[in-house]
Amino acid sequence: MKNKTKNTFNEREVFNYCVSFVDLLGQGLVLKDQNLLPKKESRDEWKKVYTTIRESLYPIFTLQHQSEDFLQCIKNPNPLHSFRKTLAEDLQISWDEANITDIKTHRWSDGLMLFACLNKSKTKCYINGVHGLFLSTGLLCLRGLATGHPIRGGIECAWGVELEPNELYGPAVARAYDLEYNQAKHSRIIVGPNTIEILKIHQSLQLLHMALF
Predict the structure, then answer these.
(1) Per-residue pLDDT tens for 97-129?
(2) Is 27 inside any structural domain?
């Protein structure tokens, strides 16, 4: 048993990740007075419970489905992009590879955790994941305000380990959660210092590339 645990650990790869932790606001108030299900003969009580269930589940399903819609657009580059059409066939392949964005989703209760690996062995351009998380989380925040079901969130980078598919562990998760739970307070998205530093480094590399070439 001891060797099995050790081998399982060794099979896990540790990388830096960018994590967006999102929470749907107001659910605690909706469920505040809820308890055990009423007795079968209490029809009026059942109606009240079903009303509460519908009111609480609708914004959760909407958040989840909207998130998937946003991510599908981000993760699947447009093959009809005007610039891509101007490229030779071999360069179109390189263009497609450079635009790959791998963002994974972990659903939990009334929230979401979106995360992207920042290792170049996973995607050719790791910064796509950071940009994708900014875009998807920002769109979810605006959607929440527009529909009356606001969210708050935190985005931060640190190391993490994927224990199972779509299941991330590590300080990347803890830091993003801390920003969402302890610092966001209301409907806004807080970006952590590690994420800002990574974006600055990437910008500096872009400027250096432009200066050299």
Answers:
(1) 888 899 999 998 999 999 999 997 777 888 999
(2) yes
Q: How many domains does the chain have?
A: 1
CATH classification of the domain holding 151: 3.30.70.1230
User: Is residue 112 situated within a structural domain?
Assistant: yes
Q: How many CB atoms lie within 10 A of CB 102?
A: 14
- Chain Cα centroid distance, residue 198: 17
Distances (CA, A) of 16 to 80, 115, 159: 32, 10, 4
Which segments of the chain have a pLDDT < 70? Answer: 1-11, 205-213
In a domain, 8, yes or no: no
Pair of tokens at residue 177: 């959660």
Range of the domain at 47: 16-33+41-212
Amino acid at 207: L
Q: 5-38 in b/e burial notation, b at 16+ Cβ within 10 A?
A: eeeeeeeeeebbbbbbbbbbbbbeeeeeeeeeee
CB 120 within 8 A of CB 128: no
Give per-residue pLDDT as tens, 46-67: 999 999 999 999 999 999 999 9
Token duo for residue 180? 């969402």
Query: Is the residue at 4 inside a domain?
Result: no
The pLDDT, as a whole number, for residue 206 is: 63
Whole-angstrom Cα distance, residue 162 to residue 178?
Answer: 20
